[in-house]
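Hey, can you fold this one?
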Amino acid sequence: MTTWITICETCKRDDWAARGMEHTDGELLAAEIETRAGAAGVKTRRVACTMGCERACNIIVQGEDETGTAKMGYSLGKFDGTAEDAAAIVEYAALHAASPTGQVPFRTWPQGVKGHFVSRHLPLPTESDT
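Sure. Predicted structure:
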């Protein structure tokens, strides 16, 4: 079973320029997630854009089960790019990894991801579904 966190490294919060940032908010969030993900058994990748600019910082959690069947995936956004955000994202991704379908009961969600879900991505149908 593999769960991935895809992180938009080009995300910039609205006040990015005013804060005089050297790195994007997405780069900062990616670095924080990457330092935690390995210990949680979750993989990461950075991408140049997830097209959710109005709600930066954006990530996607997706994966597959032990047979290679895709699980439910999720887009999340409106993070500040903090260490606390990263910890909650990685904790949620570890719960996703442990779930056979990718669905995680709301009562077990880390507080730091609540209110950040943007969309759910249904797995593509398989031949047996058609």
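The longest strand covers residues 2-8. Let me know if you want another pass with a different chain boundary.
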